């Protein structure tokens, strides 16, 4: 059965799922932990087989309870995201820890994230960094990115931008999209490394080509501003659209502005409002402010100062300073108009 499980794994790696699944099923029936783990993952993600998260979680549970670290980490993911089981961060952290304590780098990185976010365990940046360090020692790209972000932001330890850059670079060289994007950000802004916007653009492009929405947004910004690349509003429009459709709300804000201003496209207030409203409904402060601007100035809608004030207030409550300024300005104008009206009535 062990040989069947490993042969199935080889078939799966080669994309020959139809040959892999029957062998996995035989090995699963015999309780082989490799088969339980891999077939459990396949069923959870629908990778080469019809998705069945419930059965996937059941197989992963059997593998995890047998002490197989990859199954323990995958079962942790199932609990983390509520895939095939009820979401339970405590159970997720428990299974990540089981895998991490066996030395599985992915488990160490995932447990570190639970400490970083305070999910299933108390928030503890020092503990998060300690687990990330263990994953980094094994060359794990996810651990490198996560530890780099703690060092970049100074969470649980002193800010160390130079080491953050080194960690992001190590992850980027492994093809990790977040490493590529984060290293690009450091190069774009000259953090821990001399500024090199052209190199940043190249890194954003690598991550964008792999589908990372944030990298598409960041590359779009460079094209819009003509930094590190020739200014190209149409290219920015395309990148923002792709990123926004993938759920990156900062891109939705900028996409809305391009339509409102007619950059890279004709002015289209309806489309500009649509994207801005999508981001505003997600609670994006800049989008809330921009919706206020749309209603204050009647851009494709009937001017409505009450709605404008409401949007400015919501953005101001989120701490966006421009919205605070707009709110004060509009309230002052309304008060002045009210005073003037009373004078005329006399």
Describe the structure concisely for a colleague.
By secondary structure, the protein is mainly alpha-helical.
Description of the structure:
- It holds the Pfam family Sel1.
- This is TPR repeat.
- The chain is mainly α and 346 residues long.
- Among the domains are: 72 residues, Alpha Horseshoe (Serine Threonine Protein Phosphatase 5, Tetratricopeptide repeat), CATH 1.25.40.10; 61 residues, no CATH class.
- Helix content is 75%, strand content 0%.
- The protein contains 19 helices and no strands.
- Helix 11 packs antiparallel against helix 12.
- The N and C termini lie far apart (96 Å).
- The relative contact order is 0.04.
- The C terminus is likely disordered.
Q: Strand-residue fraction?
A: under 5%
Oligomer: single chain
CATH topology annotation of the domain at 211-282: Serine Threonine Protein Phosphatase 5, Tetratricopeptide repeat
Uncertain runs: 340-346
Mind telling me the CATH superfamily name of the domain at 211-282? Tetratricopeptide repeat domain
Main sheet makeup: none
Number of helices: 19
InterPro entries: Sel1-like, Sel1_AlgK, TPR-like_helical_dom_sf
Organism: Devosia limi DSM 17137
Protein name: TPR repeat
Pfam family, one: Sel1
């Amino acid at each position: 059965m062990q040989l069947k499980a490993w042969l199935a794994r080889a078939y799966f790696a080669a994309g020959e799922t139809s040959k892999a699944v029957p062998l996995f099923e035989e090995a699963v029936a015999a309780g082989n932990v490799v088969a339980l783990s891999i077939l459990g993952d396949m069923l959870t993600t629908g990778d080469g087989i019809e998705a069945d998260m419930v059965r996937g979680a059941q197989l992963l549970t059997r593998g995890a309870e047998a002490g197989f670290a990859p199954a323990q980490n995958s079962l942790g993911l199932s609990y983390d995201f509520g895939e095939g089981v009820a979401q339970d961060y405590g159970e997720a952290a428990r299974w990540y820890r089981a895998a991490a304590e066996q030395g599985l780098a992915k488990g160490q990185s995932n447990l570190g994230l639970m400490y970083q976010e305070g999910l299933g365990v108390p928030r503890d940046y020092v503990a998060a960094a300690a687990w990330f360090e263990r994953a980094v020692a094994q060359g794990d790209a996810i651990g490198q990115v996560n530890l780099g972000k703690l060092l970049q932001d100074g969470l649980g330890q002193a800010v160390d931008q130079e080491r953050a850059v080194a960690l992001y670079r190590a992850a980027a060289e492994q093809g990790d999209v977040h490493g590529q994007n984060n290293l690009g950000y450091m190069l774009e802004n000259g953090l821990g490394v001399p500024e090199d916007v052209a190199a940043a653009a190249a890194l954003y492009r690598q991550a964008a080509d792999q589908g990372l929405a944030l990298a598409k947004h960041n590359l779009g910004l460079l094209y819009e501003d003509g930094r590190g690349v020739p200014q190209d509003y149409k290219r920015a429009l395309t990148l923002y659209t792709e990123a926004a459709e993938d759920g990156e709300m900062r891109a939705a804000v900028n996409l809305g502005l391009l339509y409102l201003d007619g950059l890279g496209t004709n002015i289209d207030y309806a489309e500009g409002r649509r994207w801005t409203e999508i981001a505003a409904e997600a609670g994006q402060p800049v989008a809330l402010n921009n919706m206020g601007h749309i209603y204050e100035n009647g851009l494709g809608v009937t001017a409505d100062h009450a709605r404008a004030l409401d949007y400015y207030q919501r953005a101001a409550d989120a701490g966006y300073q421009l919205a605070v300024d707009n709110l004060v300005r509009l309230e002052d104008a309304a008060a002045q108009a009210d005073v003037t009206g009373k004078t005329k009535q006399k």
